[in-house]
Structure formats: structure tokens, C-alpha cells
Amino acid sequence: MRSSTILVSRLAASPVAVALSACIIIAHLAACQVAAPAPEDDAAAVALSEIGLTLAATPSCPVADPTCVPVADPKIESDCSDDRWISYEPGGCPGSSPIAGWNVSQLFADVGTNAPHWGLPPGLANYCLYEWSFANSAPPPSAINDLHEIVDGQGTQLQRDCAAVQPMSSEAVNLSWEMLHDHVREHTGALDLLPHSTASSLPQKIRVAVIDSLPTGDLELRSVERGGSVHGWGVARTIEELSCPAPGDAASACAGHMSAHQALPLDTAGDHAPIQGGSYGRISDVARAIVDSVNAWRIHNHSYPRSHPEHQPRLLVNLSVAWEPRFGGVGSDGPGPDMSAPSRSVYAALAHLRCWGGVAIAAAGNDGGGPDPSYADGPMPPAAWEAHPAPDAGQCASFEGGLIPPSVVLPRFPATTTYDPLVYAVGAVRGDDLPIAVTRPDSRPRMAALGAHVVAIDDEASAIPSPTAVQTGTSMAAAVLSGIAVAAWSYAPGMPPADLLDLVYERGTDLTEAAELCRGGGPCADVIRRIDLCNSVAGMCARIGDSGCASALPVCQRKPAGSGALPIPSEAMRAQVAAQAAVKGEGGVSSAADYEIALPPLSVCGHSGFQSDDDAAYPMSTCPFQQWGTSSLPVPHASPQPPPNPCPACWASTSSSVEVAGDGTTEATTEATTTYFDLYISIDPDYPYSLTGGTLSVSGYGDITLSEIGVLDPGDEAVLTDIPVHASGPFTSASVSFRTADYDKGGSIVTLEGATSSELVVFAE
């Protein structure tokens, strides 16, 4: 048997160390799979997932099974904050609080730059916000009961406003970002220059509202703070790079005007921090951000007539955020009484956007798991609402109260296509067109875009190019679709949004698989198509002819389905990392024990026949589909999917050998194939926590505990070689995960039990 080797180094803060600090997994980055630690002594075992919900005591396992970890039932209401409640009141919000201790207001009354003389349209006026007036104390049960008694007595809905909104991807900086950037451009049909139109007034800038972690502001001015999360900035730059590929170059047009509207104002402790927040948000924060984007767009256009070059004829909203379905928003035919009031407020905000001729692109969501498999199935809201129709002309007239002036807003009607949903969802694929590892079951919409290892140049104005965070998830696929749609729309802003997205879809590449999410619900007759920029702009030219077609459009290359490759690191790059670990290792190279598949819980249950080094087979597991986790947040929340990741781009190479056993006779001789993994890990020096509990999860095989790796601190590197997997494979998908350790917060030690996980780019030597 081959011996396993582990090299661990601690990197100094030198330029070389910083360059190597990003995890080179050039394995396909998993927006975060589930990993679970082994039970320790008699303590209740904690199972982990990237969304990290705070849970109560863990119940017993369904069976006495060594592969099963106790998990708690989901707590929906009791984990939500008691100091903030949303209601929908058909008779309107009361002018003053009906009970002492509570402040009441219209949810959308003070959103952004809402001009007072406009007022709120009828469709938004009846959403009410009740907030506990004593900031340093939670409302007692009697105050909550009194509020319910009064509000519920009026036949209205009153529900907690849960902090359940999340960005949809993972975070990191990669050593090989330039290679990844080329990979993104190749797989999105990016253009070096966006051609000018034959019509002098076109392309006309479309306003793009990024509903995300960034503090609210005009991104064109570059004066907006970036907040405490890199998620929103990476989303915005991805959109901008596709729709404005060469700013400052007179030969290239710019199709979009970027603005940010914060939907994630909470920091990692759950505190409201609009400048340094960006980690989480309440559902109603998304609703308010959408309405704010419509108001800001209206305010801008109030100063410019439609004929003015600064007029922005259309508004596109990018929603790379979502919440778990258990917080409301799915299983309903529309915004009726069975939809939670916070979710209903987002639905109303999207209807408001669509009535004003805008369109929303939403990330389909990443698999966060849960004790009930239904929680991991299907798309997440608001992307799930692609199954619902956009409001028609009559519904818009009623919703808006006749407030939309046709002289200002380009029409939504009539569209040529009948496919006109409330939102347009997008799923994420890798470079080889396979869905990313954390794709939710039964959630793949009609449109797909590259969502693995997406990185943009941080700012084109910089003399020395630097990367944004490398991110993987449906968030980035949404950003890609938004950038493509904006670029195509700018040549024909008068085209109804439904026709625009229909064109982008039809110009995509057929991936030969049926969509699972579509208008009217599934099953869907439509296939999944991978969309790209060049073919979408070319399709717009073909549609509109000489009236506004781009000039000097290059010949578009169409990459056939499944013909792409993953971004594999060069031998020189791998050697550089291995050499760095060997040179910097404290104590030099050490020999590690043989790695064994761990009998702690599997990330996905229902497998059988797994075999460890000591020939102990896994029994069939009856655990829940995936596990829950914990975090320091006091309320249900969802983090970036995955949360801030210390190693978002790592790689694993594989090789195989055949071992022969027996006495040499045909009957007694057996052959067994073993696949060996070499794993390369580099921890970001800026990552705030130490890491433990390393686990390699090999798809189709099981979980391998990397016990010899010990604790990894920020700046550490590890190279693990010859990790045995007793099967021939081929293995094309694997992930590495860790648990976060204790950390100091405000002078006190807080236990932060969370999981990080990154899908590896796996390649054979």
C-alpha cells in the first residue's frame, strides 16, 4: 500500500505568501456542501450545513446507526426575532400603534428617495411594519400576545420578519485568478468591445439594480462603500464587465448604469450595520430594496426626458439573494393568505417593478439541506416565482392606482411571447455544462449560465488589475444572465422584457435536458439552455435589423453542450504550491497514517456498500437527507452560499493502481483497484477563524476524515498526497470541508460551529 504524506506550512505575510493564500482547489468550487463532525464523548453531536441555523436540543436518531448524527427539527417561528413583525392589512396601516410598546409604519413609506407627492401605489400601501420600541430589550410574551390579539382580530396577517435572506455563492481569492478569468470569458461569450449601434442614440444605457450586500448608492460614481461582504461587489463587477467590457475606450459602448440597493444590512452577529453589514438580511429588506430601486430609477428619469441621452429607458433588477422555502413563498399560487406576509411583500415589490416595465433576474438557489428533504428540493424564493405569471395590464392598473404615466415608461405590453413570468430564474453550470454540486433537486430553470469559479477584474480603472473574489453559486449565474440581458436590451430598449428574455433563451445552447422550473410549474416542456453574450447580441441584431443593430459584431463561436472543460491548474502551479509547503513546513515533511473513511455521518444518506481501509462497510443510512448546523446568529438566517470560505478554489488530482492478492492461481487471485487523491489546500491569511475537522467527500464513495491535518490557521498551506479510495472510479466530483473553531468577539470567546465546503476541480494525472 502506498504511504500517505502531509505537508503543512504557515505562510509569512510576504507578497508570495499572499499570492499563494487563496485556496487553489482548482477543483470546481462547491457553493458549499454538507459536512458533519464525529460525536465527541457523550456530548450531543452537532451536524453542520453551510447555512448554519441555530437549533435547540437534538433529538435521537431514527435508528441506532453509527453513521447517523442527531439533528433537530426545523424551528420556523420560534427562531425568528420577536421585535419585528410584518402584516398585510387590507384596510390600511393604523395611523398610530394600537398598543403601547410597539411602533407601526407602512413598510414601504420611507424607502430611499420616494418622492412624497408620488405616494404609495395601492398594491404596496397595505404592508405594515410593527417594531418593538425598546431597543435594548426583547418584547415580553404578554406584549406579543396583545399585539396578536389586536391585529389578528382584524382578520389580517401578522408574522415575524425572519432574517432569512442570503447571497447565493462562496467567497475567495484564487492564486490562478487570471486563468479563471479567461475561463469565465470563454464560457459566457464575452466580447472585448461592445459594438456601437448603427443608430446614433443606441445602445442606450439600461439601469441595473444590484439587490445585494452593497450599501445603497450609485455604483457609477465608485463612491459606494463595499460593505463587510465581497458578495455584492463580485456580482456587480461581473454584470458590469459583460455589459461594459472596455470603459474609457471610445470604440466600445457601455450598456448598463449600475446602482446598489442593500438587501443584506445585517452583520455576522445579526446586528444592523448598513455600511459594514452585507452578510444577511430580512425578507422585508429585499422588498424594500426592490421598491427603492424603482424609486431611484424614477427620480433619475424625472430629470431627463425620454429623448435625452442620460434617460434610462429600462430597469433590470439582479437578485442574487434568496431565502429557504420554509420561511414562506412557495407552495402558493400567488400572494394570497397562505403566503407569509414578509414573502408577500417581496412578491408585491416585484409586481410593482414589472408594472413599471422592469424585469428581475433571480438566482435559483443553492442546496442548503435540512431534516426534511422537501426543504432542499425545488428553487428558493424569489426565483421560485418564475412559475407565477407577471401581472397583466388590468392587474397593474389596479395595483398602481393609475399612477404609471405612459409618456415616461416604455410599455410591457403587448409582448410577442406568452412566456411572461413574475421573475426569470437562472441555474448554474460548470465549464463542462454539468450543474454545480449544490444544485437543489428539482430546481433547474430554463436558463443556465456559468456559475463556477466566476471572477471579474476588480476595477478597470486600476493601473494594476486585481481580481474580485472567486465565487461559485447560482448568484454568479444570475449576474452573468443580467449582464447579457442588459447588453442585448440596450440595442432595443423598446422591446418588452418578456420578448427580450425569450430572445436570450432562444439564442442559448441546448443542454439536452428538460427544465424543472418554468411558467405554470413543472413538468416543463422546455429544455435547459446555456446562455451567452455574443449570441444574444447577434440575435438582437437579427431581430431588429438595421434600425439599431450593432456594427462590426464579431462572428460568435457557439460551444456545443458538454464540450467545455474545467479550469485545471498547470503542473508548474501545482509544483509551486507543493514546494512552498515543503519549504515553509514547521518541522519538515511528516508521515501521516493511512487515511480511513470516517464512520461519522455521511453528507447524503441512503448510500450503501462504502468500504474503509479496515474493510468495514458502511451500513445503509436512514439519516435525514442532509444535516443542519449552528452559528452565533440568534435567529434563522442564511449565509453566503457557501459562507465566507477560507479555501474556495482547491484542487485534487487522482491516480490509480491495481493491487493483486492471492496464491497465484486463477481461482484464488483477486484484483482490487485503488484510486489515490492528492489534495492541495491553501488558507486565506485574512480568514478570521481557525479550522479543524477536515473531511474529503468523494461523490459516489463517502467521507474521508483528514485527521492528520489537525488545526489549520489563516495563512497555512497543506498538501496531502496518496489518500486512498478503494474503488476504480472515475471520480469527477469531490469536496473538502472544515469546521470553524472558537474565536474572540468583543473580548469574549464565542463558539461558532459552522462548516465550510468547497467543491474540488478533480482531474486525473
From TrEMBL:
List the Gene Ontology MF annotations in alphabetical order.
Answer: serine-type endopeptidase activity
UniProt keyword Oxidoreductase present? no
Q: Give the matching InterPro entries.
A: Peptidase_S8/S53_dom_sf
Tell me which Gene3D superfamilies the record gives: Peptidase S8/S53 domain
Sorted alphabetically, the Gene Ontology BP terms of this entry are: proteolysis
Keywords assigned by UniProt, alphabetized: Signal
Residue span of the signal peptide, if any?
Answer: 1-19
Report the superkingdom from the record.
Answer: Bacteria
Instruction: Name the chain's protein.
Output: Peptidase S8/S53 domain-containing protein
